Amino acid sequence: MTALSRLETAGIVLPTPSAPAANYVPFVMTGNLLFVSGQISMGPQGLVRGRLGETMTLEEGRDAARLCAINLIAQIRAALEDLERVARVVKLGGFVNCAPDFTDIPQVMNGCSDLIVLAFGDKGRHARSAVACPVLPFGVAVEVDAVVEFV
Known about the structure:
The protein is of the alpha+beta class. The protein contains 3 helices and 7 strands; from the N terminus they run H-E-E-E-E-H-E-H-E-E. A 5-stranded mixed sheet has the order 1-2-7-5-6. The chain has a two-stranded antiparallel ribbon with strand order 3-4.
């Protein structure tokens, strides 16, 4: 199966990638690496805002991180035109808007990681950072960036 067919089987339709919100580009390609700018927790109903451990549950945080994965994949497709050009998802950098005593940041990020692996299989297994933040742009719950190797 292709990455796109795996996503379709899971009921996921990729959105049109979002335009940057400031003075940066959505992705940069250099050599055989694609660097995707941070994608925020935004879905068909708009921005998913909140702070884990205060206004959001762990499950809601995972769902927000999953939206970030969908938006990352949409940007990857925009950059490469064909998801089958992905040789490896090298690294994800995750930022979680959370209360100071919230420590389940890796479990929130699993919402993103799990979908990346679902889409790309073994090529989607990646290194990862998961960092707590006191606030994120627009008050969103999660933001994730990516480094992808392509052919």
